[in-house]
Specification:
The complex is a heterotetramer of chains A (about 300), B (about 500), C (about 120) and D (about 625).
Chain A (H helix, E strand, L loop, with lengths): L1 H34 L9 H11 L2 E3 L2 H19 L15 H20 L4 H32 L4 H7 L8 H4 L1 H15 L10 H4 L10 H25 L6 H21 L5 H24 L1
Helix pairs in contact in A: 1-3, 1-10, 1-11, 2-10, 3-4, 3-10, 4-5, 5-8, 5-12, 8-10, 8-12, 10-11
Chain C lengths: L1 H6 L1 H20 L3 H23 L16 E2 L2 E2 L4 H32 L4 H8 L1
Antiparallel strand pairs in C: 1-2
Helix pairs in contact in C: 2-3, 3-4
Chain D lengths: L3 H18 L4 H21 L5 E8 L2 E8 L2 H21 L8 H16 L3 H19 L5 H33 L4 H11 L4 H19 L7 H8 L5 H19 L11 E2 L2 E2 H22 L4 H22 L2 H32 L15 H15 L6 H14 L3 H26 L15 H19 L2 H13 L12 E3 L4 E3 H21 L3 E3 L19 H4 L7 H12 L2 H20 L6 H21 L1
Antiparallel strand pairs in D: 1-2, 3-4, 5-6
The chains are: A mainly alpha (about 300), B mainly alpha (about 500), C mainly alpha (about 120), D mainly alpha (about 625).
């Protein structure tokens, strides 16, 4: 019986993350358009695109191409299940932060496998850039995570959220300001937003990994991006903004973070890959280490 | 005692046949080599009979002049053990010579070879220091001539150097003997050992130094071993094997018989003017030999020269083992001495066979030997690993014992063994360099090396013996332990067996 | 014991200086035959030393005859016979070694065409 | 006095003797090797903790008894190394690289003896035996000159290591008079309070040997050479099982009770362990960074195995309950996934004939089973949850964080993300991308290979989802070391210090979401497969540009942009230090050689000078 309940909750969480993700991207496109002083597509545009893509015939590069893209989508779906979202917390005792992060890498591994088996060098160069960038932002993010670990003496997101209950004052955002700023920059890298979107750079490598995706594969890519977006902002909310008492507050807080990222995305040009990584290892890492020192001493 | 079990035969028979070989020579040149083979065979069986049937300790009196007055041969555990090793290795080398010595003057070669074996056995058996000098000279003369036997010019240069340095060494030894004789009036080792306290310290130390420097030439210790590289490279491989196998045993035995039994006082040794005892001086020389030997072997390009330096270094290691003075140290020393002569003579024989079948002497020529003759490369690896002291091979136990004894003695000996361990890492490098050359086969197809029977037998037997000792060390270990007892406990071990009535004073 | 030994110090000095001369020749000369001669001088030096050890002042020859009494009222007057016999063997051994050295010297001359030790070394390098 | 223990050592020795005889016939040689491994594994089942066996050896003047006893640690290490060895031996039936069975069996005999020995002589005997047996096997590599150099370099390191251990053994023998390991360690921990420097000196002698064997930071330079150029069938055993000997040795010497003696501590860890921990961390980082830029696949995985060893050493250096558990658990995981990766590499190299990443590509079409095992292997090496690598990496972070070692953990995290980079690079360059024409005829490995690969894949998933089976014996080991073991509630449960993970749950959620993915995939419109060069290239066809699959495959200079970042890092060369020592010894050697100048006068002169020095030394000293 419990299993059935958990299954339904899981499906609900999955559907929620997909729809919220697509919604955010739609609104995001409208906001970026407004910044560029044009109207931009309706905010439900992404849902329309998704249905169009899923119904179009497309070409594939063999079994690993399909398996890879499906894995990319479903691994993220599995990771969402463990994320405490406001009062929906499907597996409260099993939401270790590092476990979720490593589960997300499963998704990126799947997508990378699919994309690079397509044989198009642009795709593999894109993946190589994405992995280098991961090494870039993981280091400051690790500094932040471990300072939060030590600060809250716990590794599971549920307890971190519980530790921040109560008013705005005891959010981690207030207690660990440097950590939040470092994590914010790292989030920029995770989402692949402006200064760090060299992985899907349309000009240099024909939008990198997505070069061979068409039809339902592009649909899967879009789904993966939206769930990833939901997950990463969700983690940031749980870590620093107290996780929200119910789901809708949780979603609003996520949108705040995404909105911040969008603003930066609309303005900044792209880093070269090695400058991006060295930037990540200078400013955010320094902040993270400062934060860690404060927590440790 | 019946004529047959008189140990003097060990010396008499080889000499008898040595000088009667020219008669056989008239019949046929090859026969002389077989005669030499059979005499050494007799020597080997007789000494093994003494060793295994535990016929020692016996004193063989010459012309029934009772020991302190007449000359005597003393067959203790050391003498029995070393004589059997000498004659066994001599036998194997003689078998090798059947194939190797074809050109040149075969009869005179066999005469010299027999004299060499007789001299070496005499050195080990004799109980009289002047006799020791005579046998040293016999071994010396025969080995100069044997070295000069080699076809190449280098042999003559090597022989001449060996001759000059050894004759200076033996004159020093003779002076030392005379100095001892003037004070104690006797030449018998046992009596000198017992009455060593009656000598005046100044003269005794000077005599001791002279004796040691004289014998150090034969035992290849540092300042006196200049002749080693040129002589070993100049000589024919069979002779280098004999020199490094048999000559080294006799040389080291003589040196430590004098230092430990004659000049020793059960654990303490003659002090040079009351400060530095002779044993420490020998220890310093031994460590210097090891280091210099290993380092100069490292940069050698020619395999024979490398093996020469390596045998010099191993003699240093053996001397270091002896110079520790404890029973364990002497045990390690003797065991290493025997292991070294087995392994080193095998290595020289292998090089002999390879050179014989047209392979160059440079290290690079060993490339891909595995393809051309698996038997020789396997034997070479077994010999090299035993020299390095890898487990499952004979050298492991003896090197283990020497390191143990020297650390057990402690004090500055830790530093000594530290240097020796560094030197053996260097040794590991140049041996493994050759082993890796052997097994990394090259693409160029070279003909297979055919090893005919006569050299194959000694190499095979020596390789099997090395692995057998490596797996079950107690067979040789027990003999070396008894002989260690004879060296360290001077009075009970040696003197009282020879002259029961004498009381040490 | 020491002062009896030093009584005939003049002979020891002489014989050891002979050994010194021999050593000097062996160490400095380049010609092989000169070296062999040097070796011989060392040999004879040691033999003299051995004989000198056997003798003490106003010693009598050690052969027992009616007139020659070895022991005079309990004190040994004869020279010690043993080192003299040792000298015999030492001389024979010296002979052997010199003969071999000369043979090798001749062979070296045949092969190298020179007797100069330094030139042999260069030829060998 | 259970005699079955002696059979654990004797069986491989007999097997090796038999295989030595039939070394000519490769299949027979491999068959007997496999049978010996199998019987040793069977004999191992009879051994259990607490058994002991000793026999006397009259040597060194006294009767010494060589004892074997089985502790929790040794039974654990024996099981994993012999089990992996059997799998490898089974695979080697179809392999044709130049590995000699009898050498592998010698190493196995030494392996069993090392893990069970309780006396220093036996330990040293087995250590040196394993040393030279592995050196000779490394010699059989494919590239002749390189494997010769690699074997020589490895030989020098292991000889230097064993001599330093020999020195340590006899110093201990002089102090305690016995050779038994447990007695000596007890003695060391008893006098540690009195004069710590003396004890640290002895222990560092032993630790140098163990660091060399496991390839830890200052002594890691031989690892890539030895792994890359040893025969392909021997590399898995060399990298998976043999690197654990150093770890086993360290675990023997770690419980010195430094904490109780009030030893000065840094971050709650004795300062000696702290320094040693940093050696581990540096190895992890160095391993990862150097591995990213390798083009030879075996060198790439050699560095990866090096960096995983760094993890293990960093964890056990903490000497806290969770640290030791994490270290041993990661050692096991490393053995499993590194072994699986090297065996699949063995398959790929034997089929494609090259070990250069830039020359391979697109092999997944031809070797599906190998492809899947390799995929599971790199997933678990990167530490992705459902597979076995995650549990131990996660525990290592928990252990480090518990001691507030933030910087060390950040570096380890960098090492793990770097791991993902080089693992994907290898995965892509071998299996994905363009399949070149001359690999058209490549076939999958024979059925035996597929069975082994499938078995390893299932093992990785099983131990990933059910880590309890491994954590229970490790708990026993930790308890035997006098620490409180971690609670293991259920088989699937990994309890960390900060949070805990129920592994099967992750597995189930992945399965469910995969089902959703497939449903969505088949619901949407159908797709048509196209050839590998039919790509989005702005209208032209790659062939028009004269592109062949090889040139169109992107695998050369995979992380070239990152290389600029690490250029300052490459300038410091560790093996320059060892080469320096080598050149110095050679220089002194040739200087000393001048002494033997070659003419009789000089030698006679030396003799006389020696004599004079003798006399003066006697007089003056």
């Amino acid at each position: 019986m419990i299993v059935l309940l958990k299954l339904i909750q899981g499906i609900g969480a999955g559907a929620l993350s997909i729809s919220i993700g697509l919604l955010f991207v739609g609104i995001g496109r409208k906001i970026t358009a407004r910044i560029h002083r044009r109207y931009g597509p309706p905010f439900v545009q992404n849902f329309i695109d998704l249905f169009k893509l899923l119904s179009k015939k497309s070409i594939s590069h063999g079994f690993t191409f399909d398996l890879g893209l499906i894995a990319g989508f479903s691994a993220l779906l599995a990771a969402v299940v463990f994320l405490p979202m406001g009062q929906i917390n499907i597996f409260p005792h099993n939401s270790s932060l590092i476990m979720i992060l490593y589960l997300m890498t499963m998704a990126y591994l799947g997508m990378a496998m699919g994309v690079s088996s397509s044989g198009n060098p642009n795709a593999t160069v894109g993946i190589a850039r994405a992995l280098t960038l991961t090494m870039g932002y993981e280091v400051p993010f690790a500094a932040v995570i471990f300072s939060v670990y030590l600060f809250a003496h716990t590794g599971s997101l549920t307890n971190i959220v519980a530790a921040q209950s109560g008013g705005f004052m005891n959010w981690n955002l207030v207690k660990l300001p440097f950590g939040f700023v470092a994590a914010e920059i790292a989030l920029q890298g995770m989402l692949g937003e402006a200064p760090f979107d060299m992985a899907i750079a349309p000009a240099e490598i024909a939008s990198g990994p997505m070069v061979e995706m068409g039809g339902k594969y592009l649909g899967f890519g879009m789904l993966q991006h939206s769930i990833g977006l939901f997950l990463e902002t969700g983690i940031m909310v749980d870590l620093f903004l107290g996780g929200g008492s119910n789901v809708w507050i949780f979603v609003i807080k996520q949108f705040e973070l995404y909105f911040l990222a969008l603003l930066v995305n609309a303005i900044f040009p792209r880093f070269k890959i090695e400058d991006g990584v060295s930037f990540m290892w200078k400013v955010p890492l320094l902040l993270g280490i400062v934060q860690a020192l404060i927590v440790v001493l | 005692m019946s004529i047959f079990n008189n140990a003097a035969l060990l010396i008499a028979v080889p000499l008898l046949f040595a000088f009667s070989i020219p008669l056989f020579g008239f019949v046929s040149k090859q026969l002389t080599k077989w005669v030499a083979l059979f005499t050494i065979g007799f020597n080997a069986t007789f000494s093994l009979y003494i060793l295994l049937a535990h016929k020692y300790p016996t004193v063989v009196v010459m012309g029934n002049w009772v020991p302190p007055f007449g000359e005597n041969l003393y067959i203790g555990p050391v003498a029995a053990f070393l004589v059997s090793v000498i004659s066994l290795i001599g036998l194997l080398i003689a078998i090798y010579n059947l194939w190797a010595i074809k050109l040149g003057d075969v009869t005179r070669f066999s005469v010299l070879f027999l004299m060499f074996i007789a001299g070496a056995s005499g050195m080990v058996l004799t109980g009289d220091i002047f006799n020791l000098f005579i046998f040293m000279e016999i071994t010396g003369v025969s080995s100069y001539a044997l070295v000069a036997y080699g076809p190449r010019r280098r042999a003559l240069g090597g022989a001449f150097k060996f001759l000059v340095v050894s004759s200076i060494g033996s004159t020093l030894y003779l002076l030392g003997v005379m100095l001892i004789y003037t004070q104690l009036g006797t030449l018998n080792i046992a009596e000198i050992a017992a009455r060593i306290n009656q000598t005046t310290p100044g003269l005794l130390t000077f005599a001791g130094i002279l004796l040691i420097s004289g014998l150090a030439v034969e035992a290849e210790l540092f300042p006196f071993n200049g002749w080693v590289p040129d002589t070993y490279t100049g000589a024919v491989n069979g002779i280098s094997a004999a020199l490094s196998g048999v000559g080294a045993i006799a040389g080291v035995y003589a040196l430590f018989r004098i230092v430990m039994t004659v000049l020793g006082r059960d654990g303490t040794y003659v002090f040079t003017y009351g400060k530095l005892d002779l044993m420490t001086v020998v220890a310093i020389l031994a460590t210097a030999t090891v280091i210099i030997g290993e380092l100069s072997a490292l940069v050698q390009k020619n395999v024979k020269k490398m093996l020469a330096y390596s045998s010099m270094a191993q003699m240093g290691l053996v001397a270091a083992g002896f110079s520790i003075g404890s029973k364990l140290g002497v045990y390690g020393g003797i065991f290493q001495l025997v292991n070294h002569s087995i392994a080193k003579s095998m290595l020289f024989l292998i090089v002999g066979v390879l050179v014989g079948s047209g392979l160059g002497e440079r290290i690079e020529d060993f490339k891909g030997l595995w393809r051309r003759s698996p038997f020789l490369s396997l034997a070479f690896t077994i010999g090299a690993f035993s020299m390095l002291g890898f487990p499952l091979f004979a050298g492991f136990w003896s090197k283990f014992a020497i390191v143990g004894a020297s650390i057990q003695r402690g004090g500055w000996y830790d530093f000594v063994i530290g240097l020796i361990l560094f030197a053996s890492v260097v040794e590991a490098f140049y041996y493994l360099r050759i082993v890796t050359y052997i097994f990394s086969s090259t693409s160029i197809k070279e003909p297979k090396i055919r090893v005919n029977l006569s050299p194959a037998i000694p190499i095979f037997i020596l390789a099997v013996v090395i692995v057998a000792i490596g797996i079950y060390p107690n067979f040789i270990g027990s003999f070396s332990m008894q002989s260690a007892g004879e060296f360290t406990h001077k009075m009970t071990g040696y003197v009282l067996n020879v002259i029961p009535t004498i009381a040490a004073h | 014991m020491m002062q009896e030994f030093l009584q005939n110090w003049i002979y020891f000095i002489a014989s050891l200086s002979l050994v010194g001369v021999g050593l000097y020749i062996v160490l400095t000369k380049e010609n092989i035959f000169r070296i062999i001669v040097g070796l011989n001088i060392i040999e004879s030096g040691t033999n003299l030393f051995m004989v000198a050890i056997a003798w003490h002042p106003n010693a009598v020859m050690p052969i027992y005859t009616a007139t020659n009494h070895l022991m005079v009222n309990g004190k040994v007057v004869t020279a010690d016979p043993l080192p003299q016999s040792l000298v015999l063997t030492a001389i024979v051994i010296g002979l052997g070694t010199t003969a071999l050295a000369l043979a090798i010297g001749i062979k070296i001359f045949e092969k190298y065409g020179t007797l100069d030790v330094r030139k042999i070394k260069e030829a060998e390098k | 006095m259970n005699t079955n223990l002696i059979w654990l050592v004797a069986m491989p020795l007999i097997g090796s003797a038999v295989t030595a005889v039939v070394v000519r016939y490769k299949f027979l040689d491999r068959l007997i090797t496999f049978l010996t491994f199998a019987t040793t594994l069977f004999v191992l089942f009879l051994a259990h903790v607490g058994q002991s066996y000793s026999w006397t050896l009259k040597f060194l003047g006294t009767t010494l008894n060589l004892t074997l006893n089985v502790s929790h640690l040794s039974i654990f290490m024996l099981y994993i190394s012999i089990a992996f060895g059997t799998v490898l031996a089974f695979y080697s039936l179809i392999d044709n690289s130049r590995m000699k069975g009898f050498l592998l069996l010698l190493v196995l005999a030494a392996n069993n003896w090392i893990f069970m020995s309780n006396d220093m002589i036996g330990f040293f005997f087995a250590w040196e035996l394993m040393g030279w047996a592995s050196v000779v096997s490394v010699l059989g590599g494919r590239e002749k000159e390189k494997s010769r150099h690699a074997a020589l370099y490895y030989a020098m390191m292991s000889v230097a290591g064993s001599y330093s251990m020999l020195f340590g053994i006899f110093i201990l023998w002089r102090l305690t008079g016995t050779f038994s390991i447990s007695a000596n360690i007890a003695y060391l921990s008893s006098i540690i309070g009195g004069h710590p420097w003396w004890v640290l000196g002895i222990v560092s002698l032993f630790f140098m040997t163990f660091m060399i064997k496991s390839g830890i930071f200052p002594f890691h330079t031989w690892v890539p050479l030895a792994y890359a150029y040893s025969p392909d069938a021997f590399t898995p055993f060399l990298s998976a099982a043999m690197s654990k000997y150093g770890v086993y040795g360290m675990l023997l010497f770690l419980p010195l009770g430094l904490l109780e003696k009030g030893f000065p501590t840094a971050f709650g860890v004795p300062w000696t362990n702290y320094i040693f921990l940093w050696f581990g961390v540096i190895t992890a980082v160095v391993g990862t960074v150097l591995s990213i830029f390798q083009d030879d696949v075996k060198k790439l995985f050699a560095y990866s195995s090096l960096s995983n060893l760094g993890y293990v050493v960093a964890a056990i250096a903490l000497f806290t309950p969770v640290g030791i558990t994490a270290g041993i658990y990661h050692a096991f995981n490393h053995l499993l996934f590194e072994g699986a990766l090297f065996i699949t590499l063995l398959a790929v190299i034997s089929r494609s004939g090259t070990s250069k990443l830039s020359e391979m590509g697109g092999l997944w079409k031809k070797m599906p089973i190998t492809f899947f095992t390799f995929f599971v292997g790199i997933a678990s090496a990167a530490g992705i949850p459902p597979f076995n690598g995650f549990g131990s990496k996660w525990l290592v972070y928990q252990a480090m964080i518990k001691q507030h070692l933030i910087f060390a953990t950040i570096l380890l995290f960098l090492a793990s993300t770097g791991a993902f980079m080089y693992l994907f690079k290898a995965f892509h360059s071998i299996f994905l991308g363009q399949l070149s024409h001359d690999y058209e005829r490549v076939k999958e490995v024979p059925i035996v290979g597929q069975i082994v690969e499938a078995f390893l894949m299932i093992a990785m998933i099983f131990f990933g989802v059910q880590p309890g089976y491994i954590l229970k014996p490790i708990g026993a080991i930790v308890k035997s070391m006098g620490l409180k073991p971690l609670p293991v509630m259920a088989n699937g449960y990994v309890a960390g210090m900060f949070s805990n993970v129920y592994m099967p749950l992750i597995g189930w959620s992945l399965v469910v979401s995969f089902i959703f993915g497939f449903i969505l995939f088949y619901v949407s419109a159908e797709h048509k497969n196209v050839s590998q060069t039919d790509n989005y290239t702005a209208g032209q066809i790659p062939e028009d540009w004269g592109l062949t699959p090889e040139t169109y495959q992107f695998s050369w200079n995979f992380y070239q942009p990152v290389e600029k970042l690490f250029v300052p890092f490459f300038r410091i060369k560790i093996d320059g230090f060892f080469r320096g020592i080598g050149d110095w010894t050679k220089a002194t050697g040739s200087a000393i050689k001048e002494i033997f100048v070659g003419n009789a006068q000089m030698y006679a002169f030396f003799a006389i000078v020696g004599l004079i020095i003798f006399v003066i030394a006697g007089w003056m000293a």
